[in-house]
Design a protein that fits this description.
The complex is a heterodimer of chains A (544) and B (357). By secondary structure, chain A is of the alpha+beta class. Chain A has helices at residues 2-6, 12-19, 54-60, 63-69, 78-86, 106-111, 244-269, 275-283, 309-312, 315-325, 330-334, 341-351, 379-390, 396-403, 414-417, 437-444, 453-463, 466-484, 488-507, and strands at 39-40, 50-51, 96-103, 119-126, 137-141, 152-158, 163-170, 173-179, 271-272, 288-291, 305-307, 337-339, 354-356, 363-365, 374-377, 428-429, 530-532, 538-540. In chain A, helix 14 (396-403) crosses helix 17 (453-463). Chain B has one domain. The chains are: A alpha+beta (544), B alpha+beta (357).
Chain lengths: 544, 357
């Protein structure tokens, strides 16, 4: 039960304190006598928690501080939070409240009652209004009303500084653990909340259709599996669960809000102050979303599995730049990857595909509820690319040339990631057209970058006719992949490639997002690192 | 139901409104009957008539889904296909695009159900014709709205113009024959029975449920989700109905997916033509006069706006369902129709025996 409530894997402040051997740190100190005091602890910047005085807390201007923390009685339980938000006076109320449910193990627990449902709730409060999907406050918690130590994390928007502020309730008090710009501060990057919120914005891993593991249009999660929770015991924790597709709208809106604020801040300063932070989001795997088929393998149907395009190539990104260049997208749109159901099942069985409830079990044979959950390029990176293109900070020609480097490996591509060396680490002045192009291209033509295979390919891509290059390369790739998918051995290779990418996700810098074992299926023998060639075949990568 | 006028629109005379209330009552009673007919051996149904019983004490479920058909992809060919054929617009939202030589000029989205317009033809033809005149044009004549048997023609030429028409004419849904309010009521009612497969295991996933209870259309966003939501609430000890005001509504459009060429707020493109802010039934998308750009200069998910389908893809439709605590729990009943997951297919004879015993 404590694992179910604590979710230690996503409580970085507590983990940091424990790792420093100061488990009592959060309970002791000058704040111990006043649990209503809010403390600050930005991992990497603050050595120990420090008391936030009222003036500093007011200066944040975020929706949660204003409504809940500055009242003098901050909520210590979910019940107190829900009651407090419902009791806000008219001028402060956020009238739109949604409650979303994610539970990776809910479906598996119907097959094996020992399989932990792993249920979490996400609450979102907003002002509402037609077209307004923004949430001012988002809370990640568990369906337990009155436990003062269970997971409760908040991110809240501030119009004052144009950022999200992150809070955790730890050790009997609320802790401010950073705000969005600190995701890019070298001291705090990848630490604290920014282990998961890598780029400072909201995160919903399974952001897009079919929102695997979430209660949504594609799957109403069976609430019978959560009978030992407090669902249904409070008007704001009822059995009426919002559609996860609405959370997609909220998260995409939040990502756009933060990205626009980043860009606006740079525009106000007259310079792109941190070009590398944008460059990373174009050419590296700065974060991930999880994609899947819309197929429940256990159902007895004949239709083939349509594997997500995004696993094979960066379709959304390429479509975006193609639109900017006015290219015909017929070949792009035509690429579709299907595998016969029986072939997939055979390959999965031969490789021992299964889902684990925890690292030590239980184990359920087969795939996740919607088959083939895989990491792919994150929407937050797509939104940054879109904003850079629309702001004319980078030309679509250069963006296309970069995205087409090692395009058959849209995730975890060391070759394409090497292009980060081309982005300057010093500010780039605004004022002309596509200000990022010139320094990137200049770096590309200078030693030692000029001899790097990724840079050579990027420059070749720039010189090529974009329509002809896109169509020719994608057509050949698509045909090659479909040939791979036509045999059991080929599908096994694809499953092993998926396994390798899942491992890269689980064991890399994004591992906080891979904290729950039931999120993705596993093979009996995890695949070694591998990549897909441009001809649609797969090769193992030599390590070391 | 406390509110009966679709979209809370105040356009019916008192007599017409009374008749409409009776109509809604009859529609929901049809739902109750559909639930009873799905399990005739049961003493009662767990789908109730909210028009008769009222909504007091019932929790409201805002069941929402994407307006763009689930079967279609995010590409120009599929967008054009959906725009060009109202029969493909199967998610309880239909749209029409008015175009000229420069491209799309206006896109109109409607969730108004044919049930209301068929009713108006019977009860208030003056109101019916005035609505057509206001939203389609003065050229509409009553005779144009009538079929060969003197009944209201849902797919009349002014509501569902021929393929290739660029006038953007649409009055209400009905181009797809399933987009009726009664259809939503009946599918919710049929889905309201907790169900077990032939192995006795409870059915909790939507696709298995729709195969089991044989309601609606499995490949849509809407039908399986509506059924799944209602079925879950009944499994949890409630009875269910559909809430008022009767109808389906445009719930939201995600403005974060829209990029305006002048950086302005996308709200400027949208005009609510029928319904109130919380119950939008008819929505127009057009560039404001004097804006200096065209619809095709607007980007939706990074692509120039050329099809109504692109807006439908970022639009959500809403139906309100109700869940009311019941004093008795609904029984779980076996499936009808195709053998669902987990069941061992029986011989034809024993399957029949199981079904009718």
């Amino acid at each position: 039960m404590s694992d179910f409530l604590d979710f230690l894997s996503r409580r970085p402040a507590l983990r940091t304190a424990l790792s420093l051997g100061r488990a009592g740190l959060l309970d002791g100190g000058p704040t111990a006598s006043d649990p209503t005091t809010v403390v600050a602890f930005v991992d990497g910047i603050d050595a120990i928690p420090r008391v936030l005085d009222r003036a500093e807390l007011e200066s944040f201007g975020d929706a949660f501080s204003q409504r809940m923390l500055l009242t003098g009685t901050p909520p210590m339980t979910v019940r107190a939070l829900l009651d407090g938000m419902s009791a806000l006076p008219a001028g402060e109320a956020l009238p739109v409240r949604e409650m979303f449910l994610v539970a990776e193990g809910a479906r598996k627990s119907l097959v094996n009652p020992a399989f932990p449902p792993n249920a979490r709730l996400v609450y979102a409060w907003g002002k509402g209004g037609f077209g307004n999907s923004d949430a001012e406050i988002m809370v990640s918690t568990v369906p337990v009303l009155d436990n003062p130590t269970a997971l409760m994390q908040v991110m809240a928007w501030s119009d004052v500084d144009g950022s999200f502020h992150f809070f955790e309730r730890e050790g009997g008090r609320w802790m401010w653990v950073g705000h969005s710009p600190q995701a890019f501060d070298p001291r705090s990057r990848g630490r604290g909340p920014f282990m998961g919120h890598r780029n400072g914005g909201p995160v919903m891993k399974e952001l897009l259709f079919p929102w695997v593991h979430w209660s949504s249009t594609t799957d109403t999660l069976p609430l019978e599996t959560l009978a030992n929770t407090d669902l249904g015991k409070h008007p704001a924790m009822s059995t009426v669960v919002s559609n996860a597709q609405t959370l997609e709208d909220i998260v995409r809106s939040g990502l756009a809000r933060w990205t626009n604020a980043r860009v606006a801040a740079d525009q106000g300063a007259g310079a792109i102050r941190d070009p590398l932070s944008y460059g990373r989001q174009i050419v590296t795997t700065s974060s991930i979303n999880l994609f899947s088929t819309n197929t429940v393998l256990a159902r007895d149907e004949d239709a083939p599995l349509r594997l997500p395009n995004e696993f094979f190539f960066d379709r959304p990104g390429l479509k975006m730049v193609a639109a900017q260049l006015g290219l015909d997208q017929t070949v792009l749109d035509a690429q579709s990857f299907a595998v016969e159901r029986d072939t997939y099942k055979q390959a999965a069985a031969e490789l021992g595909l299964h889902v684990l409830g925890t690292p030590s079990g239980p184990r359920v044979e087969g795939d996740t509820h919607f088959a083939f959950v895989v990491p792919a390029r994150a929407q937050e990176d797509q939104i940054v690319l879109k904003t850079l293109l629309n702001s004319r900070w980078i030309s679509p020609q250069l963006a296309l040339a970069m995205l087409m480097v090692d395009f058959s490996n849209p995730m975890f591509s060391p070759k394409r990631a090497a292009l980060t060396q081309l982005f300057p680490e010093t500010p780039v002045l605004l004022g002309g057209e596509v200000p990022l192009d010139a320094p990137v291209l200049e770096a590309a033509r200078n030693v030692p970058a000029a001899s790097h295979p990724a840079v050579i390919e990027m420059l070749e891509n720039l010189d090529a006719d974009p329509q002809e290059s896109l169509d020719t390369r994608l057509s050949a790739f698509g045909a090659g992949v479909q040939a791979t998918l036509s045999t059991t051995e080929g599908v096994k290779n694809i499953l092993q490639l998926a396994s390798a990418r899942r491992t890269s996700f689980r064991e890399g810098v994004l591992r906080e997002l891979a904290e729950f074992t039931a999120t993705m299926a596993r093979l009996d023998a995890p695949a070694s690192p591998r990549r897909m060639r441009e001809d649609g075949t797969i090769e193992e990568i030599a390590v070391g | 139901m406390s509110e009966f006028a679709p979209g809370n629109i105040d356009e019916m005379s008192p007599a017409t409104l009374d008749a409409w209330k009776a109509e809604v009552n009859a529609l929901l009673n049809s739902g109750v009957n559909a639930a009873r007919n799905a399990a005739p051996s049961q003493p009662r149904a767990w789908f109730f008539n909210a028009a008769e019983d009222g909504e007091a004490g019932a929790a409201q479920l805002n069941v929402n889904w994407t307006a763009y058909p689930k079967l279609l992809g995010s590409n120009a060919a599929d967008y054009a296909s959906a725009d060009g054929d109202r029969r493909r617009q199967e998610e309880y939202c239909e749209w029409a695009v008015r175009s000229d030589a420069s491209g799309p000029v206006e896109m109109i989205f409607s969730t108004e159900t044919p049930d209301y317009y068929r009713f108006l033809f019977e009860r208030d033809q003056s109101l019916l014709l005035s609505l057509y005149h206001e939203f389609v044009g003065d050229h509409v004549m009553l005779a144009d709205l009538t079929d060969g048997l003197g009944r209201y023609n849902v797919t009349n030429i002014h509501n569902v113009p021929p393929t290739g028409d660029t006038s953007g004419a649409i009055m209400h849904m009905g181009g797809n024959g399933a987009n009726f309010y009664i259809a939503a009521i009946v599918l919710a009612a049929q889905a309201s029975w907790p169900s077990i497969d032939s192995a006795g295991a409870p059915i909790t996933d939507e696709q298995s449920l729709i195969a089991c209870r044989q309601f609606g259309v499995a490949h849509r966003h809407s039908d399986p989700f509506i059924g799944g939501q209602v079925n879950q609430q009944v499994r949890l000890g409630n009875s269910a109905s559909l809430g008022g005001p009767p109808g389906l509504y445009i719930d939201s459009v995600n403005f974060a997916d829209i990029t305006m060429p002048d950086g302005s707020d996308p709200i400027g493109l949208f005009t609510i033509q029928r319904g109130d802010d919380a119950h939008i039934m008819r929505l127009s998308v057009a560039v404001p006069d004097g804006a200096g750009f065209q619809l095709s200069d607007v980007l939706v998910r990074g692509q120039p706006l050329q099809f109504g389908s692109q807006i439908a893809e970022i639009m959500r439709i809403r139906l309100v369902a109700l869940a009311r605590t019941d004093t008795a729990s609904a029984p779980s009943i076996p499936c009808v129709g195709a053998t669902p997951l987990g069941a061992t297919p029986a011989t034809t004879g024993s399957a029949l025996h199981t079904r009718f015993s």
